[in-house]
Amino acid sequence: MKRTNLLSFLPFLVLLLLPHLGSKPILASEDVSSYVVYFGSHSHVGVITQDAMDRVRETHYDFLGSFTGSREIATDAIFYSYTKHINGFAAHLDHDLASAISKHPEVVSVFSNKALKLHTTRSWDFMGLEHNSYVPSSSIWRKARFGEDSIIANLDTGVWPESKSFSDEGLGPIPSRWKGICQNQKDATFHCNRKLIGARYFHKGYAAAVGPLNSSFDSPRDIDGHGSHTLSTAGGAFVPGANVFAQGNGTAKGGSPRARVAAYKVCWPPVKGNECYDADVLAAFDAAIHDGADVISVSLGGEPASFFKDSVAIGSFHAAKKGIVVVCSAGNSGPADSTVSNVAPWQITVGASTMDREFASNLILGNGKHYKGQSLAPSSLPHAKFYPIIAALEAKAKNVTASDAQLCKIGSLDPQKAKGKILVCLRGINGRVEKGRAVALAGGVGMVLENTNATGNDLTADSHVLPATQISFKDSLALSRYISQTKKPIAHITPSRTVLGTKPAPVMAAFSSKGPSSVAPEILKPDITAPGVSVIAAYTGAVSPTNEKFDPRRLLFNAVSGTSMSCPHVSGIAGLLKTRYPSWSPAAIRSAIMTTATTMDDIPGPILNSTYMKATPFSFGAGHVRPNLAVNPGLVYDSGIKDYLNFLCSLGYNASQISVFSGKNFACSSRKASLYNLNYPSITVPNLSSSKVTVSRTVKNVGRPSTYTVRVNNPEGVYVAVKPTSLNFTKVGEQKTFKVTIAKRKGKVAKGYVFGDLVWSDKKHRVRSPVVVKL
């Protein structure tokens, strides 16, 4: 695709402003940007007609015109009107005008059209063919009819419709409730079918930031790979013989392989690392809700922000009001604490962990030592042939920094020093595959990628352009000692091969963003973790598996890592549950997924992080997803829109804002509700300042009549008491409330967060909730 010259299209708009109270027109500054003006919900009743949407659009023009003094100026400034379920508009405004609008009593919030990011690591570092318990059993899939009745929408880079993962073979007619379209008027090569039932694109917010776009942008086609990968992970059809360079061969399938899917393209070629914009995300949410999606999968996000100024949180709220499950990626800013994004309680937030499959490519040294590595490099060194191995710094070219040479940046290596050797490059900053290209350009025969202390044991299998492998931080230290202490160090890199049943698994990915939430620490985020490392799924035919311009290779399937990849695993499971239990609320589905998760690996032992230290709920939430148990959770923690509004009241949001936000005459209670009493499947007390705190929870029986008893694993330094300790259910749908009192133990206790859990069990079901307390 031809790239627009972004620097030549810096948008600006000069507005003649007439203040709302009426004074002489003033000339706005040229510091014009794009903003979202958010009014909350619409008052539509029944079917939303085109006339009703047109009337909303006109009111938006009138509203902005009352500030600009000219309806014509307002009409030109607005580039989106959200007219279906989300009430608001996106427009070119200057800061003063945006500030003035934000003070209007009918406005919930005004926020800049911020840039968001896709949550994939690709071959860069930013500091379906699953094996372990993720895969639903055949009986579970059959009971849920492979998700056949569910419609999964994906907000991403669009879709590659030619992929076999989106074949409609064996599917019946498109569900009559579907209102979506196949927006292919300007791309005659793009086609939808009974599987891929809809596709739209949204780029006005992107254009507002980068400038006018050419006609090649007018298509939902995926030219990046990310959207096809995530959508096929959530709902891709069965495709035998899927593989990446002959590795991981098997049948590709999404979590809901017979679900209908729809693509909403909101992400575009990155500008300064950002590719998705708030205004487009809101437009896509508004469309997906109206079109009839059951599950919306969102593998993108931005910096944590106030819920009223977060496009994903806003869109998710309106989706939840319509009973739509929204699943979001947690972000790739780990392993630092408080980096998790998409933290609203009405979202399911997903971290990333490994599976018990690796693409092994080991490093053998001249002293006989073997070090475990991973790679998907299709090329290999001659069998058992050893080559000289050196640190990349030893091949530093003239006039470049030592740091650039260590990182193996393009042009940083001297061919006379690198030719015929294996070079050891440091992970970080520039692309992992790009490092290998730098080595190849300098005449090197292979590359070893060394992990840093931060990335620990986190190994990613990349489609390198030369024989290469990546090794852990511990092994990197041993390799460095060998090179420095050996007169003529030599090494061999073994060819890539697929290894199943690896231990330990799952392990938390180093990149996976962690809690506690910086917006609402009373809610544990992420909620859950799922496979997000070296996930094989469908890809675009427009770019290489590395997404590097220098790489001419094309693949039907690709292995990619990120919370972008773990998110659609859970979206697919949500699709199965939505088909199996169509009356369940989004909160009930989230509860089923969370309370049946595991915190143990396959050794067995507690789930570890990338440095092989014990991970905490701030990494994995309730644990690693287990779909076979989620389909029969026994009890669920249910909640609805009123519960979320009360939670916002407790957070201190303005009562009038909440009323407008909800679209109903909702009023915060005069008695402030406890932040801890949102009926969430986890319990978090971020500041146990008093001697004790009591929280309330309600569980609903979704299984057979049974009696449940409670067991508590107390966090260190804390005593947890539950009343009553037994709950007897006589029918489906019956609800019971219990109280949990959390108290400090007497004596000296360590400061900081401590972790435990609370489990209700009837000997058949085990309904587990994490308990997180800060002392």
TrEMBL record:
Residues 677-773 form the Subtilisin-like protease fibronectin type-III domain. One of its GO terms (biological process) is proteolysis. It comes from the Eukaryota. Residues 34-119 form the Inhibitor I9 domain. PROSITE patterns: SUBTILASE, SUBTILASE_SER. Residues 148-609 form the Peptidase S8/S53 domain. This is Subtilisin-like protease.
